[in-house]
Write a structure and sequence with these properties.
- 40% of the residues lie in helices and 14% in strands.
- By secondary structure, it is of the alpha/beta class.
- The chain has 2 domains: 209 residues, Alpha-Beta Complex (Amidase signature (AS) enzymes); 192 residues, Amidase signature (AS) domain (Amidase signature (AS) enzymes), CATH 3.90.1300.
- An 11-stranded mixed sheet has the order 1-3-2-4-6-5-10-11-9-7-8, with helices on both faces.
- The radius of gyration is 20 Å and the shape is globular.
- The two termini are 30 Å apart.
- This is Amidase.
- It comes from Roseibium porphyridii.
Length: 441
């Protein structure tokens, strides 16, 4: 007999009470509403795969009657009247919403929110969906939803020892995601859980087309038309990897973890091949340009009325975004188009649909030594390119540093191959134990 939703929620709220004063994952804990919802789920005898699962969402998703400010004082009076599509779908499937979670202000990653890494409280937890990764790591949510415009679902998961999926762009509705805290052309709604198997149960609930989000209505690859799965997996070739690591040095322990992960896949029968993506090193500049411009357009009016309520660095970024010249925007668009074609051609050339990379070039760093305004770009060179291309990508735990900090492995797939990508991640997690490790908090 499955555990009741009320019992699952009680265990989750106990974890909130035990850890929240240390890790600060939540912006709003909705205990009364959650208990009422769990009781309703128990009475309904819901049979969904996620019935009774306690979940949370980044504080950029609308939750009816709750402040959704995107972590900004400039929007602290913004109260949603309706649930975001994804929140409504999870509730309808029997999920229990525990609360909304801390995010960097407007997802920019330029401030340092209170959220702390449960593996070492003096270390960075990743951004901007930091609350999501932390809550799953400590058990104060069974799973969580975040948004990812450059790596914000994958980077916190790499740094907290959890699993995070950024699906194909447009696969999951973003209706009800705070526009002032998103860059629609590169943003993806993503899922964070302890394992790929758990994500595999959540994903189908969220993927039906949504008439309120045109991106979800675009043509999708039917199961019968999908390219045949094979046992080849690519890694970046020496030229591409050298170009990236010259600009963003790869930590030796992460390099070793990547090599060890390749061994795991080889032992499972995979052939590791190399592919080159000459445009990938240009992705950081392109993603910063597009993100800054799209975020700026949405915040123009608020900045003019209440600039003093924005973090000074965020206000400065918005102002810079408003002044980006047209030729720079066009260059960013050209990089996106070129990288999309390049990745598709590279996959075809080596007969694979999957690419392995580190999630980040460096593990979590000490907060005392990390200045996000100067160093945020050093975390995204392996992730942000696939926001430009819209390909699905998942980060899974693949090792630990000598200091006991998690290391993440990113696997990128062809468009709409989430099922196969999750299968690959699940095979890795069947062969390893990294996702089973628990943080000390």
């Amino acid at each position: 007999m499955s555990e009741t939703a009320s019992n699952q929620l009680t265990r989750t709220l106990d974890a909130v009470a035990r850890t929240e004063d240390k890790v600060h994952a939540y912006r709003h804990v909705l205990e009364l509403e959650a208990r009422s919802s769990a009781s309703d789920v128990d009475l309904s005898k819901a049979s969904s795969p996620i019935a009774g699962w306690a979940f949370a969402v980044k504080e950029v998703f609308d939750v009816a009657g709750v402040v959704t400010s995107g972590g900004s004082q400039a929007y602290e009076d913004r109260v949603a009247t309706l649930d975001a599509t994804v929140v409504a779908r999870l509730r309808a499937a029997g999920g229990t919403l525990v609360g909304t979670q801390v995010a960097h202000e407007l997802t920019c990653g330029l401030d340092q929110p209170l959220t702390r890494n449960p593996w070492n409280l003096s270390y960075y937890p990743g951004g901007s969906s930091a609350g999501a990764g932390v809550s799953v790591a400590v058990g104060s949510a069974r799973f969580a939803l975040g948004t990812d415009a450059a790596g914000s679902v994958r980077i916190p998961e790499a740094m907290t020892g959890t699993t995070g999926l950024k699906p194909t762009w447009g696969l999951i509705s973003s209706h009800g995601v705070m526009r002032e805290a998103s860059a629609p052309s590169i943003d993806h709604v993503g899922i964070i859980a302890r394992s790929a198997a758990e994500i595999g149960k959540v994903l189908p609930i969220l993927t039906d087309p949504d008439p309120w989000d045109a991106a979800t209505l675009q043509a999708r690859c039917d199961q019968d038309q999908r390219p045949q799965h094979n046992n080849r997996i690519a890694v970046l070739g020496e030229t591409t990897l050298s170009a990236l690591t010259d600009a963003y040095p790869l930590d030796p322990e992460i390099k070793i973890a990547l090599a060890d992960s390749c061994k795991v896949f080889r032992q499972a029968g995979a052939e590791i091949v190399e592919l080159e993506l000459p445009t990938l090193p240009m992705a950081v500049d392109a993603i910063v340009t597009l993100f800054s411009a799209e975020l700026a357009w949405a915040n123009t009016a608020a900045l003019a009325k209440r600039r003093d309520r924005f973090n000074p660095k965020v206000a400065e970024m918005i102002e810079t975004g408003l002044g980006i010249p047209a030729d720079r925007l066009m260059d960013a668009v050209r990089v996106r188009s070129k990288l999309q074609k390049e990745l598709s051609a590279a996959f075809a050339a080596v007969s694979t649909h999957f690419l392995l990379t580190p999630t980040t070039p460096r593990p979590a760093m000490s907060l005392a030594e990390f200045d996000p305004t100067q160093e945020l770009g050093t975390l995204i060179p392996f992730t942000c390119g696939f926001n430009l291309t819209g390909n699905p990508a998942i980060s899974i735990p693949c090792g630990q540093t000598k200091e006991g900090l998690p290391i993440g492995l990113q696997t990128v797939g062809s468009h709409y191959m989430e099922t196969e990508l999750l299968d690959l991640a699940m095979e890795f997690q069947r062969q390893t134990h990294w996702h089973e490790l628990r943080c000390p908090i």
